[in-house]
């Protein structure tokens, strides 16, 4: 019997249940153990200001190391690139949507100043930078992610960003009780639990967090039976992509508030890698877009990091870290 540790939010339990079902479909019985995390208990402090890595993962790490659970299931983007001593990656499930989406506030009051919501909608779903005048109306958008804030302000410099915290259910409620235009969410988080509101807009132009939309299973190092069972539900293509994205992040990372984005996808025999570094105020952005042969994937993330440093990302990251 494999004991699967998970946070107790609806999304976390859904993800852990996926793992349980997959393991059981291959003949390994499993049960869920629900654990509360600091990231869920403190709903006021923005994540980047909590000052530590792994606010969502630490409690599960402790439960693993003290043998109260056998595996932990995480949204992979919440897992620090450096795993604690004694804990290893056991498997990555096939990635769902990696997009960020804008959920519109159903109670937002349109101003009577000629703001064209339909025109703005088509700007938002346009993957390319627009010619015209993007987002000249000063909207307020909610997110507590410095990465989303940076990319939003880079595209819509006149907008205001408000902080919003909590699991997806809490954030949807806060949005509907606010006067904000909308809030940014990971598509995967809402879609998995059937909460993606009709009319939400996929932000194709916004580059996701490394490993967004992927589910990671961790286990104790050397726990051979558990690691073997998990390896059978690993999705190799996803594992390659998220490894490249997290290698890129770990090569560049200086502080936890650095808005670094990355997305790797596999097409036939190549791995396409897109990465960016944007200053938190949105004024400066450096991007890379590279294609690597699939057999070079082990090095793809580091190669892309070297490329973006060549393009001048180093001083930008250093400047942001100094502002912490
Ligand atoms: N940081 C919180 C978090 N961690 C994982 C998800 C959603 C699922 C995913 O991206 O894999 C979310 C919610 C969000 O960003 O809106």
TrEMBL record:
Residues 240-309 form the Porphobilinogen deaminase C-terminal domain. InterPro entries: HemC, Porphobilin_deaminase_cofac_BS, Porphobilin_deaminase_N, Porphobilinogen_deaminase_C, Porphobilinogen_deaminase_C_sf. Its EC number is 2.5.1.61. One of its GO terms (cellular component) is cytoplasm. Keywords: Porphyrin biosynthesis, Transferase. Monomer. This is Porphobilinogen deaminase.
